[in-house]
């Protein structure tokens, strides 16, 4: 599932390509991905422009010239591609937004959605999200941790704690900090908390600069999207040698989630 770095990469790359471009046509093959009828969706979009793009946690917000907001959550398996019909990947597309010859394809939205809301509705829908992990300081991070009692892994993926971190970066942050994701939050001392905070800040920034871990390119010639995938220290590397010590990376299941760590480098 795309997390904060992946959605931030999409926001930055798409902002350079579709802002203030007029939507000339809309195609919907999966109406369930919408919260309104496909006809009404097309009526709201055709002739309209996306004037601003914003990211909130794992959501993208496309602000329209008319004041409405497209709220996107890709969920598991969702991704996007921008290009011409000839360039389109050979994948099933649920929604297409046409910008003249170019199109924005929404792919794999079996669980994801692209909904139309007013700005007030968006605020109401997202108000339970926790703060952005790159927008808080150490004192705020420490205070938020005091409210939690579970494992570090489960705490990090809780979107009411911090918004935007999921399975991949929770494990990557813990490895960077040298702390087991299976530890209870209550076991952390001041030094542990500092290391987790610093690892979170550094690693998320690194992942954004490297385009996140989503391997599918956003457009033909895209050399940024997915470049963090080869930099993953532990995530999806079960049995591979740890980059620090050479011992095998371990995979377990923690609260029904995949969890990766090095038992030698993390404690």
TrEMBL record:
Q: Which SUPFAM superfamilies does this UniProt record tie to the protein?
A: Glucocorticoid receptor-like (DNA-binding domain), N-terminal domain of MutM-like DNA repair proteins, S13-like H2TH domain
Domain of life, source organism: Bacteria
Q: Which InterPro entries match?
A: FPG_cat, FPG_N, H2TH_FPG, Ribosomal_uS13-like_H2TH, Znf_DNA_glyclase/AP_lyase, Znf_FPG/IleRS
Give the matching PROSITE patterns.
Answer: FPG_CAT (PS51068), ZF_FPG_2 (PS51066)
**Membrane-crossing segments per the record:** 60-82
Its BP terms in the Gene Ontology are:
base-excision repair
FPG-type domain location: 233-267
Reactions catalysed, semicolon-separated, are: Hydrolysis of DNA containing ring-opened 7-methylguanine residues, releasing 2,6-diamino-4-hydroxy-5-(N-methyl)formamidopyrimidine
Q: Which keywords accompany this UniProt record?
A: DNA damage, DNA repair, DNA-binding, Glycosidase, Hydrolase, Lyase, Membrane, Metal-binding, Multifunctional enzyme, Transmembrane, Transmembrane helix, Zinc, Zinc-finger
- Which SMART domains does the record cross-reference, listed alphabetically? Fapy_DNA_glyco, H2TH
Pfam families from the entry? Fapy_DNA_glyco, H2TH, zf-FPG_IleRS
MF terms from GO for this chain are: 8-oxo-7,8-dihydroguanine DNA N-glycosylase activity; class I DNA-(apurinic or apyrimidinic site) endonuclease activity; damaged DNA binding; zinc ion binding
Formamidopyrimidine-DNA glycosylase catalytic domain residues are 2-106
Per its record, how is this protein called by name?
Formamidopyrimidine-DNA glycosylase
